[in-house]
Design a protein that fits this description.
alpha/beta, eight-stranded parallel sheet, three-stranded antiparallel sheet, 20% strand
């Protein structure tokens, strides 16, 4: 599908909520027979993710997340990728499709030239991180299938060392809805609490009525006063909290460093951190980093970021956006490298189209399948 045809048939000028659900047939399976021209063929379609519950963050509320599903075909084998675009990333369906429509992937005859393809994407346009991640994920899925191995094995990682994943809840003013959210955390050994919305302590106290499970906190830049941030860190440390993610706005580096020096809990960079050059900057104010494929342009750079952070003595967390099992399972290939995981994005949506990562007794379990380990449902 080229960009001109895509825009003509998909009416991207309309509201994204009206976009039809993607339909992928069995003909798209990795083993299907196709024209063998020895070149990469890129196709893509929009796909809106529908959340099971409203997502209440420090600066927004939403019930859907726009996405784009990607396929790269090479000699009859198909690799799948995905772009998911929460509003704060600055990308949307049209910007992703515009970028993907500009790519001439047919110039490449070797899907293993991932470094060259990344350099080419950087030359086409800056930023567009989620769009680039969708191509990167599809390339890793494709090349892993060609090799007949999952990427955790290609990287030499031990799947037994995957961490427990957290499961995310956010505050809800409706007591029944809040109780439902809390009940859904029962199978997990770590609960991630979204904060910075003015009801921070209420969410934790509501959870503590039913469970003493370990928690981690994501303030989503919601605390703007350093003393308030420190007070919250001290309060949370007494309530079985493991760490605090992005306590203050990403621009408040000096204030965050002040909190880090005094906090009993590790501080983890999220919105502050995007790509590889940001890892060294993060060390100035944070104890660790949260790597997400949609920010890092995919698995290739995420792997480099994890190695660098480890070399610098930093903690490493692996996160995700609200995504299908495609992108979440791709991220899971890296999970044996990290201290903490927040790989629940697929569990938060009601219209997943892939089977992949499993959470067994709270622990990330990577499928032993080639590529990124997914299958179409």
């Amino acid at each position: 599908m080229n960009r001109r045809n895509f825009l003509r048939t998909s009416a991207l000028g309309l509201a994204f909520a009206a976009a039809p659900a993607i339909s992928i047939s069995a003909a798209d399976s990795p083993t299907r027979q196709a024209t063998r021209n020895g070149r990469l063929n890129l196709t893509f379609e929009p796909y809106e993710l529908k959340l099971r519950h409203s997502f209440n963050l420090a600066r927004s509320q939403r019930t859907t997340t726009p996405g784009v599903q990607v396929r790269i075909e090479y000699d009859g084998i198909v690799g799948y990728g995905e772009a998911s675009m929460p509003p704060y990333l600055g990308e949307n369906v049209q910007s992703v499709c515009d970028f993907l429509g500009r790519l001439d992937m047919a110039q490449f005859t070797d899907p293993f030239r991932i470094e060259d393809i990344h350099a080419y994407m950087e030359s086409v346009a800056p930023d567009n991180r989620a769009a680039k991640a969708s191509v990167d994920i599809a390339l890793h899925d494709l090349t892993g299938k060609i090799m007949g191995q999952p990427w955790y094995k290609i990287w030499g990682l031990n799947p037994d060392r995957t961490p427990n994943t957290s499961y995310t809840i956010s505050y809800d003013a409706d007591p029944t809805e809040m109780r439902t959210k809390i009940e859904e955390t029962a199978p997990f050994k770590v609960v991630k609490v979204k904060m910075g919305v003015g009801h921070d302590k209420e969410t934790v106290e509501a959870l503590r009525k039913y469970s003493d499970v370990a928690i981690c906190v994501d303030a989503n830049q919601g605390w703007t006063d350093k003393q308030q941030a420190l007070d919250m860190c001290n309060w949370l440390a007494e309530r079985n909290c493991l760490f605090v993610e992005q306590p203050m706005p990403k621009e408040m580096i000096a204030e965050t460093a002040w909190v880090r020096e005094r906090s009993p809990l590790p501080l983890i960079a999220d919105e502050f951190l995007q790509r590889l050059p940001d890892v060294a900057r993060a060390a100035e104010a944070y104890d660790g980093i949260n790597i997400k494929l949609m920010k890092s342009t995919g698995m290739h750079e995420a792997h480099q970021m994890a190695i660098l952070a480890r070399a610098m003595g930093m903690k490493v967390m692996l996160g995700c956006m609200t995504e299908t099992s495609c992108a979440v399972t791709a991220a899971a290939q890296l999970s044996p490298m990290v201290d903490w995981a927040d790989l629940d994005g697929n569990l938060l949506i009601a219209n997943d189209i892939f089977d992949g990562i499993k959470i067994i007794d709270g622990k990330v379990t990577i499928p032993d399948r080639p590529g990124i380990g997914i299958e179409l449902i």
